[in-house]
Amino acid sequence: MPRGILIPADRTAPLEQGTFNRLEDYQAAVGGPIEAVDLPEIGVTIYANEIGVIQQLPVNSRATLLWWFGRPSRRRKAVLVGDLVMVGLPTRAGDSTDIPADLAQSIMNPHGHRVELTMRGASARYVSETVACNYFEAIVLAQTLLDHWAEATVAEIVPRSELEAFEDAPYRNGQKPW
């Protein structure tokens, strides 16, 4: 009973965590026959509607960003369409597994994300001051930094804690109470 995340094509719809027990569960979630897109770089498989392009389903920008971030060679060459299910990579026997817990927690984190960059020749990492409100906006920030900063070699998306979010929260008079 693999646990995963349903990523709706509608960007305003919330992500949903769920359990996908049977082929029919995947088919119901994506609205038709399924096609697997493996992303071993981040340890997941994304299940899409196999005929979604033919059916002219809407682009799933969140899943497409994740795919492009995990596999830069696909960037700007293809998109994922329709509602999608993301679970862990399959076993050797072909059975789906749970989405990696740390990735699921990061994607579902409601407290925002920062981007940390590994810089060529530097021992310390650069931590962006910009806070992305969700994992997918952090991907955009990470990719932008990588594209425009030649010394940046690797980007990591880091979820913020509830305390960090609280400390950054605005207050009525513009002052923090401490």
Q: Note the beta-strand portion.
A: 15-25%
Distance between the termini: 47 Å
Element string (H = helix, E = strand): EEHEEHEHEEHEH
Unreliable stretches, pLDDT < 50, 5 or more residues? none
Outline: globular
Structural features, described:
- The protein has 178 residues and is an alpha+beta fold.
- It is built from five helices and eight strands; from the N terminus they run ββαββαβαββαβα.
- β6 and β7 form a beta hairpin.
- The model has no long low-confidence stretch (mean pLDDT 91).
Keywords:
single chain; 178 residues; alpha+beta; 5-stranded antiparallel β-sheet; 3-stranded antiparallel β-sheet; 24% strand
In short:
With about 180 residues, the protein is an alpha+beta fold.
Which SSEs are present, and which pair or pack?
Blueprint: E1 3-7, E2 16-19, H1 23-30, E3 34-39, E4 44-49, H2 61-70, E5 84-88, H3 101-108, E6 113-119, E7 126-127, H4 135-148, E8 152-159, H5 162-168
Helix pairs in contact: 2-4
